[in-house]
TrEMBL record, chain A:
<comment type="similarity">
    <text>Belongs to the transketolase family.</text>
</comment>
<dbReference type="InterPro" id="IPR009014">
    <property type="entry name" value="Transketo_C/PFOR_II"/>
</dbReference>
<dbReference type="InterPro" id="IPR005475">
    <property type="entry name" value="Transketolase-like_Pyr-bd"/>
</dbReference>
<keyword id="KW-1133">Transmembrane helix</keyword>
<keyword id="KW-0808">Transferase</keyword>
<keyword id="KW-0472">Membrane</keyword>
<dbReference type="Pfam" id="PF02780">
    <property type="entry name" value="Transketolase_C"/>
</dbReference>
<dbReference type="InterPro" id="IPR029061">
    <property type="entry name" value="THDP-binding"/>
</dbReference>
<dbReference type="InterPro" id="IPR033248">
    <property type="entry name" value="Transketolase_C"/>
</dbReference>
UniProtKB/TrEMBL annotation, chain B:
<comment type="similarity">
    <text>Belongs to the transketolase family.</text>
</comment>
<dbReference type="InterPro" id="IPR005474">
    <property type="entry name" value="Transketolase_N"/>
</dbReference>
<protein>
    <submittedName>
        <fullName>Transketolase, beta subunit</fullName>
    </submittedName>
</protein>
<dbReference type="InterPro" id="IPR029061">
    <property type="entry name" value="THDP-binding"/>
</dbReference>
<keyword id="KW-0786">Thiamine pyrophosphate</keyword>
<dbReference type="Pfam" id="PF00456">
    <property type="entry name" value="Transketolase_N"/>
</dbReference>
<feature type="domain" description="Transketolase N-terminal">
    <location>
        <begin position="17"/>
        <end position="265"/>
    </location>
</feature>
Length: 309, 279
């Protein structure tokens, strides 16, 4: 998704002179297309994220559309107060680009695992929060939203070599996209981890359990109507995200369920372990948190009362 | 390209403007029964020179207007006073200071005409100012950006990120002004977190450094007039000031960072300001 972002932004910048890209000294082998095509609108500000947010605020107030790029942890948290008091408070079109949500930075460790970025972004009024499911959707989401008047937080995954089945790059702000339909179970998924949700649905299908998989790509605005409609049809819904259970996709679905008085039981598949307790690659960390296809499948079977998994 | 704004300088010049700003600070802080008086008095002369003489097209939404960011937002009352004297805020608006539903709080709010950015969290304003300065250069506009920071604000690490960036990018159109009154919320800056030698620090970071008496309107005007914002390094004007300047019982007293005025203190403060001449 990060290369799809860089490529799409480079193309958009050919037509739109307002686009500026800043990085806090990250983006090796990713941002070169933009920096070489638009050197006058590319700034490596150094390892200084808080300053980068302030710079972008000033640029946005002067008519530019600045994108500020870093690893999702640093992009979302180091300058968080500057984001709140800058583009959020002033309603300015700053685009905060956080790369590599969840465990995508694997062995780099907890300092590089964004497990609360979506929760932090979601509570800021007027901050649009977008987390695409694959690289084609990332490109579509960027092209569709970059001109919005207010600020945006994008969580882009690292992989550019995987496409979710039946998504075909669709993106609609504040809507869900249905990846497959079934009557027995609802899985609501988000971001790069959606590949595992799709795998879980296939494993469940092998056991005769037909699953609807709904992809959420924007947490703010929430896809309220779509989620309301979906959870009204199922007794059990699983939410799947590479994030702490609090504040992200699962919380959003629970808020909607509570808001409409739905009888649907919502189980949140998320990162439940304490940070820093172990090191490992992305796959290992997903397994440790039950966030592989097999792990999600097992949680689903348990929720459905099938105990021989 | 820009024409200087038609500044409404009080009769008697900038000294008189500063005196009027101080009077408004005392009157409105008393009316609202709030503090931060010392911090506002500390910058009254700087604000008088900027708004009475230096800033172009202030209070307009002209894209070529000079930008001013009061990064030490807790001194907003001085800014409101200047905007009132410039005709941007009415008498009625000024008198809503800190009232429920008012646009005039202890810290400035960008929805108010004449305020480009909301401030109040220290260490943020200079980065926004560097952004507007960078934007001016990219658009080939000749407006300038002035950011007024407190000396204690230089405790903030984020400020130095911007100091490095602005020097690296040679943002000659960015002017930082440091209200160097040597005081912060809980004590003297030299006792809390010593900043000195402050001028040498900014110089070492690649800025063009000017040090002046922050209460001498003639010196301030001359320093600002001397800045070549079209070329060279970013500029910093370190203004040697006294917290609470103009009111004898406040000057240099840490408590006046916070305290409101009693009736007796109010009358004494107003009387001293009426009689004083600062230049």
């Amino acid at each position: 998704m990060r290369r799809a972002f860089a490529h799409t932004l480079t193309e958009l910048a050919h037509k739109d002179p307002r686009i500026v890209l800043m990085t806090a000294d990250l983006g090796f082998m990713v941002l070169e297309e933009f920096s070489e095509s638009h050197p006058d609108r590319f700034f490596n500000v150094g390892v200084a994220e808080a300053n980068m947010v302030g710079l972008a605020t000033g640029l946005a107030a002067s008519g530019f559309i600045p994108f500020i790029y870093s690893i999702a942890t640093f992009a979302s948290m180091r300058g968080y107060e500057q984001i709140r008091n800058g583009p959020v408070l002033h309603e300015l079109p700053v685009r905060i680009v956080g790369v590599g949500g969840g465990f995508e930075y694997g062995h780099a460790g907890i300092t590089h695992h964004a497990l609360e970025d979506l929760a932090l972004a979601r509570v800021q009024p007027g901050l649009t929060v977008i987390a695409p499911g694959d690289h084609r959707q990332a490109a579509a989401a960027l092209a569709d939203t970059y001109q919005l008047p207010g600020p945006i937080y994008y969580r882009f995954g690292k992989r550019d070599d995987y496409e979710l089945p039946r998504l075909d790059g669709r993106f609609r702000l504040g809507r869900t996209e249905i990846l497959q339909e079934g009557d027995d179970l609802l899985i609501i998924t988000l971001g790069a981890l959606s590949s595992e949700a799709v795998l879980a649905a296939r494993l469940l299908g092998n056991r005769g359990i037909e699953t609807t998989v709904a992809l959420v790509s924007s947490l703010q605005p929430p896809p309220w109507d779509d989620i309301q409609s979906l959870i009204g049809k199922f007794p059990v819904a699983l939410t799947v995200e590479e994030h702490y259970p609090e504040g992200g996709l699962g919380s959003m679905v629970c808020e909607i369920a509570a808001g409409i008085g739905a009888s649907c039981r919502v189980l949140r598949c998320a990162v439940g372990t304490s940070p820093g307790s172990y090191f490992g690659g992305e796959r290992y960390l997903r397994e440790a948190n039950g966030l592989t296809g097999q792990g999600i499948c097992a949680t689903a079977l348990k929720a459905l009362g099938v105990h021989d998994a | 390209m820009n024409q200087p704004a038609a500044h409404i300088v009080a009769e008697g010049g900038l000294v008189s403007t500063a005196k009027q700003i101080r009077k408004i600070i005392i009157e409105e802080s008393k009316r609202a029964n709030v503090g931060h008086i010392g911090s506002a008095l500390s910058i009254a002369d700087i604000i008088a020179v900027l708004f009475g003489n230096e800033l172009r097209l202030i209070g307009t939404d002209d894209p070529l207007r000079d930008r001013f960011i009061l990064s030490k937002g807790h001194a907003a009352l001085a800014l409101y006073a200047a905007l009132h004297l410039e005709g941007v805020l009415t008498e009625g608006q000024i008198q809503t200071y800190c009232k429920d539903g008012s646009m005039l709080g202890v810290h400035p709010e960008h929805r108010l005409r004449g305020i480009d950015f909301s401030t109040g969290s220290l260490g943020h304003g200079l980065s926004i100012g560097a952004g507007t300065a960078l934007a001016a250069r990219m658009k080939r506009f000749d407006y300038r950006t002035f950011v007024l920071v407190s000396d204690a604000e230089c405790n903030e690490g984020a400020l130095w990120e911007t100091v490095m960036f602005a020097a690296h990018q040679k943002l000659s159109n960015l002017v930082a002004i440091v209200d160097d009154n040597g005081q912060q919320a809980l004590g003297k800056t030299k006792d809390v977190l010593d900043l000195q030698p402050l001028a040498e620090k900014w110089d070492a970071f690649g800025w063009e450094v000017h040090v002046t008496d922050g209460h001498d309107t003639t010196c301030l005007r001359e320093v600002f007039a001397s800045l070549d914002t079209a070329l060279g390094k970013p500029k910093v004007v370190i203004c040697k000031t006294v917290c609470g300047k103009g009111v004898s019982f406040m000057e240099g007293k840490v408590a006046w960072h916070y305290l409101p005025l009693s009736d007796e203190q109010y009358l004494q403060a107003l009387g001293e300001i009426e009689e004083a001449s600062f230049s």
